[in-house]
Structures are given as C-alpha cells and as structure tokens.
Amino acid sequence: MSQETGRSGRTAGSAAPSPRGAEVGRRIGVGLMNGLWRPRVLGAGKVPPTGAAILAVNHSHLLDGPMVMGVSPRPTHFLIKKEAFVGPLDPFLRGIGQVAVDRSGTDRKAVTDALGVLAAGGVLGIFPEGTRGEGDFTSLRAGLAYFAVRSGAPVVPVAVLGSAEKRGRLISGLPPLRHRVDVVFGDPFDAGDRSGRRTRAALDEATVRIQERLAAHLEKARRLTGRRVTLE
After folding, report:
1. N or C, which end of the chain is more exposed by having fewer CB within 10 Å?
2. In the predicted model, what is the mean pLDDT of residues 4-21?
C-alpha cells in the first residue's frame, strides 16, 4: 500500500516529535539515571534557557543519550538510529519525542523532523560522530554542521565521561550501579561564519570549526573531572 505525502513533506499518518513527550522522557530519564547511577552535572546553566539549541554529545556508550536526556535542563529530542526503534521501544521512543534516522542514506523525514524541532524553538540532541566509538570527537559527520548552519541554532558541546566504565559491572553492557557518570555542558557557539552561506564549502568549514570546539571542550571536561573518555 502506498503512503501519501502532504505539503509539509511528512508521510501521512506520521507525527512531528512531541515537545510534551520529550518532557515526559526527561522526567523518566531523571528518575532512572539518578536511581541507578550517580550523575554529576557541570555547566547545565550554559544551555540556553529558551529558543532553539543543539546538544552535540560525544558517544562511547549506549547510556550516553538517556543520561543527557535525564540531566539536561530542557527536554531534548535525540536523533537515534532507526535500528533502535524495534518492538515496544518503537512507540515508546516516538512517544517521548525522539527522532528515528536511517543512517544508510539521506533520511528526508528525519531531516524534516529535526529542523522542525529547531524551528519550534526546541532542543535537538546529536551524536556528531554518528555511532558509538572512542567518544573523542575525532571523526565528525557533516550532519551536525548542516543542522547548525541551516537553523542558526547555537551548538552546546556535551561531554559524557565514565559511562563506559567496565570494572565492577553486575550487568553486562552497563556501568556499575551507583557508579558516577560526569556530564559536562560547554559554552554555546555558532557553527556558521554568520555569512548565511549553505554551500558545501561552508558546511566543510563549519565541520572543522565544530570539531575544534568540541575537542577543546572535551579536553577541558577531562581536566575538570580528572577523567579520560573511557575507563577500561
């Protein structure tokens, strides 16, 4: 059966990410993260209290997204790989305002949804490395630059440190219960050069600019917390 697409570019029957759902997700995250671990949050006041913003989060563990969602001072809509939207997790993640993205190509619906979040003055969460890795911001994709330049929203660097701790685990794949995880928010910055350009060259320049700022923030977060990105 074919699906019709309206003028907005959305597939019939689909819904925009819900701000109210994202707030519910934030409250769930607060309970879970503080109940199971010991988040230490630094710099949360640097997140703009109103208006569009992009949280650029390093990614070394699957816990990073839920942790940031729970400790962020504002509800956050994360771009999450579509493979996570399976079984009962599909309606749950969509219900709390998260955005499924197909990483195999240009996912126009995900792009539309993400830009819609920013146009409505919401907070978009992105893992600019694209997938879990060392969590050191050394390999960035152009997606973050595109959303930042296209929307004009400030980028807030976020470093999650300690989520990949392995020593003392009781549950495979998760940090030890009651383990401290540091979340450090950095100073917001503009990714573009304020020229309004959206060319490939402008995006490439913005990606370099973003990488430099994120790497600098991560190093500062390490010094503040006395941590490495991962603790093997």
Report:
1. N
2. 58
> Nearest to residue 68, comparing CAs of 48, 39, 93?
39
Secondary structure element (H or E) that encloses residue 77, with its range: strand 76-81
Contact 174, 167 (CB under 8 A): no
* Mean pLDDT, all residues of the chain: 83
pTM: 0.84
> What is the DSSP code string of 158-227?
EEEESTT--TT-SSTTSPPTT-EEEEEE---B--S-SS---SHHHHHHHHHHHHHHHHHHHHHHHHHHT-
Residue type, 110: A
- Integer Cα distance of 221 and 181 in angstroms: 12
DSSP assignment string, 118-153: HHTT-EEEE-TTSS-SSSSS-S--THHHHHHHHH-P
Angle at 83 between CA 138 and CA 136, to 5 degrees: 15
Task: Write out the two tokens for 184.
Answer: 């450090």
95 contacts 21 by C-beta, under 8 angstroms: yes
Q: Which two tokens stand for residue 216?
A: 């600098």
CATH class of residue range 19-225: alpha beta
For residue 64, the SS3 value is helix
pLDDT tens column, 195-211: 777 788 888 899 999 99
Banded pLDDT at 136 (limits 50, 70, 90) = low
Domain segments of the chain as ranges: 19-225
CA distance 82 to 97: 14
Phi, psi angles (nearest 5°) of residue 137: 60, 20
